[in-house]
């Protein structure tokens, strides 16, 4: 393992401990790192990806993240890589950073390349956001939608009915979809909740008059809209 000069490998704890190092000689010898900002370049037309930079931090302001991103965009341009899209998760500091760049999702989704003046789009990582939505829905149990209240219990009741052997309505809902806490990072468990097959199964149970699915069409529509 290669350790930077400002970091130290601690065998007993199986981890690296070091101080803030943003690169470019910007080092804070007094502050222990708690996280890392990683910039990755990924090809659009061809399948390739490469790390661009690592920044070892203890919290970054949106202004600093903006500076780091714009510097990376310029450096990539110098080696022939044209950045078309900036993708990040929905952390508050990332949203603030996009605002600093000139984007305010969903109203404004692009800013101008600092060198070429071409359009660079900004978007939230769909994979991360679908997991966040599933967790938000499952943790809160209900979500207020334009059509009414979507209820997580319709998904849990669908699972119970299928597990009891009453009927199975051609969907992939299993125990791990309901008890998702231990598998929060598994994308397929989140996407399979927001699937057309689950929405159709819930709609079917409502249409046949199952007493526990009265008004479940709101949940079904929410699943379909989230899927799209």
Could you characterize what this model shows?
The chain folds into two domains: 118 residues, no CATH class; 101 residues, no CATH class. Helices cover 38% and strands 25% of the residues. It has eight helices and ten strands. The strands form four sheets. The chain has a three-stranded antiparallel beta sheet, with no helix packed on it. The protein is elongated.
Short key terms for the protein model shown above:
3-stranded antiparallel β-sheet, 228 residues, 3-stranded mixed β-sheet, elongated, 8 helices, alpha+beta, 2 domains
The domain tally reads 2
Q: Looking across the biggest beta sheet, what order are the strands in?
A: 1-2-3
What is the terminal separation in angstroms?
Answer: 43 Å
Shape: elongated
How large is the radius of gyration? 23 Å
- Determine the mean pLDDT: 89
Please provide the ordered H/E string of secondary-structure elements.
EEEEEHEHEEHEEHHHHH
Beta-strand percentage range:
25-35%
- The percent range for helix content is 25-40%
The SS-based structural class is alpha+beta
> Describe the biggest sheet?
3 strands, antiparallel
List low-pLDDT spans.
none
Specify the number of helices.
8
Report the count of strand segments.
10
